[in-house]
Design goal:
It is built from nine helices and nine strands. With 285 residues, the chain is of the alpha/beta class. It has one domain: Metal-dependent hydrolases (TIM Barrel, Alpha-Beta Barrel), CATH 3.20.20.140. The protein has a six-stranded parallel β-sheet. Helix 3 links the parallel strand 2 and strand 3. Helix 2 packs parallel to helix 8 and helix 4 packs parallel to helix 5. The chain is globular. The model has no long low-confidence stretch (mean pLDDT 94). The protein binds zinc ion (ZN). Zinc ion binds next to loops.
Length: 285
Amino acid sequence: MVIDFHTHTFPDTLAPRAVGGLAESADMMNYSDGTVSGLLASMERAGVDVSLAAPVVTKPHQTEGINRAAQAINNGFTGRGVLSLGGIHPDTERPERVLEDLKARGFRGIKLHPLFQGTDIDDRRNLRIIEKCAELDLIVLIHAGLDPTFPGVEHASPKQILHMLREIPYGKIVLAHLGAMGQWFEAEEIYGRNVYLDTACTLYPWRNRRGGVTDFEGYIALTNERFTGLVRRHGADRVLFGSDSPWTDQLESRTLLKRSGLTDAELRAVLGGNAARLLGLEEGT
Ligand SMILES: [Zn+2]
């Protein structure tokens, strides 16, 4: 089973504006239209069985609506297809109640995006949320490192992430982008810790809307050698395939991973085995 642990979808009515706006503000190419049906078509092409959608709540009052949309996605999940995390904002009111509610409704976890949410990952509001997730056994997927939409802004730097992990050493934290998008050389202390890392946008060059390579703060994709070195250093049993669709092409992301130099056993684990275990999905095929 192939599982893409890091994708984004938007409700059909919002997708054109949301994807168009983000593509414009960061000058990023988009490879699907950002709808659930667009993602399903991409999965078909890429041979992906399950995609995990990670909703980002950018304003506290959106929490309920975003989780309603996420619930609708999960209601259509058959063991294959799109499964959604829940969303929460550091300033969401009564976050403990929201998380308990998500747990009761069968959500596997939540997504935090410190840059879009304008809050340090080691801020006490985020720590409060992560602590509650640990109590409820919910996965916490966290954007880690830099972001092309926010050049020069640091809310999830390796230093801040390490501080967060010292405060709450929780094994179901997933750090996106191999722990530190564009800051891998400062993230040495993250590797080997008891957390998961996803591979989104690590082997993949960010492309601008003209098809050229986006250069933000000197960001360059990892070489195969550096990528496999980091995966092995961390432990391939805690690395998860992610594409960040629609911002990369799922098929190309999968192909780049396949050609990275990981062994067949490592690839099986990274492409789906680890995620199936973490999400509690049947490995079926
Ligand atoms: Zn993402």
